[in-house]
Design goal:
A hairpin with a 2-residue loop joins strand 7 and strand 8 (193-198). By secondary structure, the chain is an alpha+beta fold. The chain is built from eight helices and nine strands. It has helices at residues 5-9, 49-65, 94-109, 111-123, 132-141, 150-155, 164-179, 211-225, and strands at residues 22-26, 29-33, 38-44, 69-75, 78-79, 88-89, 187-190, 193-198, 202-203.
Length: 228
């Protein structure tokens, strides 16, 4: 599955900015208060076709509400200390574990380029995700100076995804997913609540699964979080 070039050509940066929208009055003066973003989590596997579909959908969602959300990915896998490279077993193999780590490290150290980096990887096709050459290619495409970046130290300077910090981030993400009750890729959580799953088809989506449905849900939660 490939994300269209149109989507990659018009990336949406998340976590890169906050737009203040609320004000409080104190002693005759108005003070700006940062608005509260809606946490959106996608439970994914980097090489999973369901994950790529969800990320494609949310690429369109973010075009409408990027200033209202704090989006992140939580990786679905199993802790397995017998797995010698990562200590984690990923459904689609070692390459998927590497892809997860590459994305986690870019998210931590290059947050303004993170979503665009993922779209670049997805565009090349899921069978290429985790490939070190693709990591370096996508880092360059989104303006990351890989050799001098903390993301490279995290994931591995060669882009292999075998950096020690990156492996720790993956284990932490897997544990977080278990605590959140995420079992399937792709599971969508909005403001801490599971609202939809795509596992071959859309499931358990009581409020719909279109782009506009997710936008509507995010707007509703945003209004609740920022009610005066």
């Amino acid at each position: 599955m490939r994300v269209s070039m149109l989507l990659f050509a018009a990336p949406v940066a998340v976590r890169a900015f906050h737009i203040p929208s609320l004000f409080s009055q104190n002693s005759g003066q108005f003070n700006v208060i940062d608005d509260v973003k809606v946490p959106v989590q996608l439970g994914v596997m980097s090489r999973c076709p369901d994950a790529l579909l969800c990320e494609n959908v949310f690429n369109q969602v973010l075009k409408k509400v990027s200033d209202r959300v704090d989006i992140s990915l939580v990786y679905v896998a199993k802790i397995d200390e017998n797995e010698q490279v990562f200590g984690v077993k990923c459904m689609h193999g070692l390459e998927e574990c590497a892809g997860n780590i590459q994305q986690l490290c870019v998210a931590k150290y290059e947050p303004s380029a993170w979503w665009e980096f993922i779209q670049c990887q997805n565009y090349e096709g899921r069978s290429e995700i985790g490939n070190p050459n693709l990591t370096l290619k996508c880092a360059n495409a989104v303006g990351i100076d890989w050799e001098n970046s903390a993301a490279a130290e995290c994931a591995g300077l060669d882009g292999s995804g075998t950096g020690s910090e990156g492996i720790t981030l993956l284990k932490e993400s897997v544990i977080r997913g278990h605590k959140l009750g995420i079992e399937k890729s792709c599971t969508i959580l909005i403001n801490g609540e599971q609202v939809c799953i795509h596992d071959g088809t859309w499931k358990n989506c009581q409020n719909g699964h279109s782009v506009n449905d997710f936008v509507k849900q995010i707007n509703a939660e945003y209004d609740k979080l920022n009610a005066v």
